Amino acid sequence: MTVGDSGDQLKSLQATLASVEAVLDPDALRTRIAELSKQAGIPELWHDPEHAQHVTSQLSTLQGELSRMEGLRQRLNDLEVLFELADAEDDAATRAEAERELSALGEAISELEIRTLLSGKYDARSALVTIRSEAGGVDAADWAHMLLRMYVRWAERHGYPTEIYDTSYAEEAGIKSATFAVKAPYTYGTLSVEQGTHRLVRISPFDNQSRRQTSFAGVEVIPVVEQSDHVDIDESELRINVYRSSGPGGQGVNTTDSAVRITHLPTGIVVSCQNERSQLQNKATAMAVLRAKLLERRRQEERATMDALKGEGSGSWGNQMRSYVLHPYQLVKDLRTNYETGKVTAVLDGEIDDFITSGIRWRRQTADQL
């Protein structure tokens, strides 16, 4: 890398980081952190554990975001000095060190830049994810289970708490469906680009003749409902059933009818929860999931109305969106962005950040073209 090249890259990083700071506004972050810190110091806050957890989680996230931004700014300033030192002393070792830091810093600033692209109305919220097996029989059920593990592992890698609300196990292997929450700010905006149909091609472990099988699973991602949302539900429009929770193979995990299934009769939306011992807790969680699904339905209706007024098609990118091939070769490819990798095992173990990043950038570019 020539001196001119490194200088140009430094200028580019300075401009990118300045644009990130303009969007994220460090001064506003400091003000908000001070407000949340004051709230977190009030003993009465914990009289409402759910609200207290929301406050402390948001505080931790904003503190981390500010620290990350300030750290990148300091690293960039230090890097300029390091390049100046290398040039002044004509020191090859110092220049090599500076170029390594330049590459690493470029990646770190690019990752932070992605955060600025999450500016949708609900992007800052936690995510509610539902995975369903689709075409492909037992292989599809097994594939849905593999996807559930992939997303839970992704959350674990980032330190995001998850809570599985309901799992419907298939008879032979895998799951029919599962609903879980990823409880961290901006996980809805981040994971929303994962929505759609995921396709798996492999030699079926359930086929005695070891034939290649194609199976499908659907991923739905919606924002968690907050107190500021107005989602009215008429109790008379609900059918509520209670049943005994069960695990794989019908194994009983509870001795009482504590699991709850709620059907919203006007829309046909069905939600269920069986993760708590208490029927009342399961009902409260199921109602929260129902409110989130009704909010998403309202959002989709509003979006369809706006698209019709603008004379546009739906432009849906949420159908078949990614292909995972395990045989006869190994490749994971996003069908929207064309980003691909041969590291299938790593992807299935939760290393999907590059797919998410390319999806977020693709979504912004697509929106800008409309």
Characterize the largest beta sheet: strand count, sense, and whether it forms a barrel: 8 strands, mixed
Tally of DSSP helical segments: 9
At the fold tier of CATH, the topology name of the largest domain is Alpha-Beta Plaits
Side by side, the strands of the main sheet go 2-3-1-5-4-9-10-11
Low-confidence stretches: 249-253, 309-318
Question: What's the count of strands?
Answer: 11
Helix content estimate: 40-55%
Q: Say what oligomer this is.
A: single chain
Distance between the termini: 39 Å
Q: Proportion of β residues?
A: 15-25%
The total number of structural domains is 2
CATH architecture of the largest domain: 2-Layer Sandwich
List keywords for this structure.
Alpha-Beta Plaits, three-stranded antiparallel beta sheet, globular, 9 helices, eight-stranded mixed beta sheet, single chain, alpha+beta, Methane Monooxygenase Hydroxylase, Chain G, domain 1
